[in-house]
Amino acid sequence: MYHLLKGKRGIIFGALDENSIAWKTAERVHEEGGTFVLTNAPASIRLGNITELAQKTNSQIIPADATLVTDLENLVEQATAILGGKIDFVLHSIGMSVNVRKGNHYTNQDYDYTEKGWNVSALSFHKVLQVLYKKQAMNEWGSIIALSYMAAQRVFPDYNDMADNKAYLESVARSFGYFFGRDYNVRVNTISQSPTATRAGQGVKGFEEFIAFSEKMAPLGNATALDCANYTVAMFSDLTRKVTLQNLYHDGGFSNMGVSQQVMEMFE
Ligand code: NAI
Which domain does 49 fall in, by range? Predict the structure, then answer.
């Protein structure tokens, strides 16, 4: 513990159960002295066990469907009231593809599902940013992070329409990040995380094989949810004030590998 977030206030989206990246992040932020409001979609709050996390971290839960601007407005108003001031950090840790859930192949999408998944996984980030921006709810030198995956840049066939959603998400971080930086000295970045065994991750077809492959490819091995939480804490801290508009790979080196010895050996 380094007290990196002492006195800082935030909003954490997307803690569903103890495997969630947002869950680990909330625990680490709490340990580092940050205070925050937890939020998730009402159905996910009923499904998961976020109340346990709230008790552990002395935080309140405000339900919000991240696709509904009115819910987000209410969330930001309540969060600033509960926390007693403007916001220093926000984690957007939200993703869901209806096509993946329904088993629709990338070449056979139901476009209503595509739109729903895009709204939840990508457009919701713009909505969060726009509500924070219009309400002038962020403190100067605040930090906003969304979680992405490398399928935004490279082909991973079973990642399906989530690849397109992540590409959009990363673009929103750059485009909105410009205005947040220029007008409020607030930074906006995405962290491109290794495959991680969570509810969202395990929904991807062939996930077990894929996580084993990337473990053998990455010189440092896969980054875990806890590793990701630590990186996010660093990005929320005052030690990274001039990092913005970036997609930050957090994957044990996977993204710059061609092939590893360990993977080659499998073909010998
Ligand atoms: P998770 O399933 O624990 O978290 C996803 C969260 O999205 C859940 O808490 C869910 O309730 C929330 N959500 C869904 N619809 C929502 C809505 N309408 N409004 C508000 N919240 C909603 O899974 P995980 O893996 O922790 O996912 C967090 C983020 O990390 C996602 O953006 C995911 O794409 C990303 N990511 C995950 C990787 C993995 O392999 N697990 C790898 C790289 C990125």
Answer: 9-265
12-50: per-residue pLDDT in tens? 999 999 999 999 999 999 999 999 999 999 999 999 899
233 pLDDT band (50/70/90 cuts)?
A: very high
Residue 64 in any domain: the answer is yes
Which residues carry out catalysis? 149, 159
Give the residue, out of 96, 202, 254, with the most ligand 1 atoms within 8 A of its beta carbon, to mutate for a pocket test: 96
Residue 2 lies in a domain: no
Please give the full DSSP string across the chain, using - where no structure is assigned: ---TTTT-EEEEE---STTSHHHHHHHHHHHTT-EEEEE--HHHHHHS-HHHHHHHTT-EE----TT-HHHHHHHHHHHHHHHTS-EEEEEE-----HHHHHT--GGG--HHHHHHHHIIIIIHHHHHHHHHHHTT-EEEEEEEEEEE-GGGTS--GGGTTHHHHHHHHHHHHHHHHHHHHHHH--EEEEEEEPP--SHHHHTSTTHHHHHHHHHHHSTT----HHHHHHHHHHHHSGGGTT--S-EEEESTTGGG-S--HHHHHTT-
| Whole-complex ipTM | 0.99
Q: What is the per-residue pLDDT across 71-130, written as a single tens digit (0 to 9) for each?
A: 999 999 999 999 999 999 999 999 999 999 999 999 999 999 999 999 999 999 999 999
**CATH number for position 40:** 3.40.50.720
Q: What pLDDT score does 207 carry?
A: 87
Ligand 1 centroid to 220 CA: how many Å? 24
- Tell me, what's the pLDDT at 203? 79
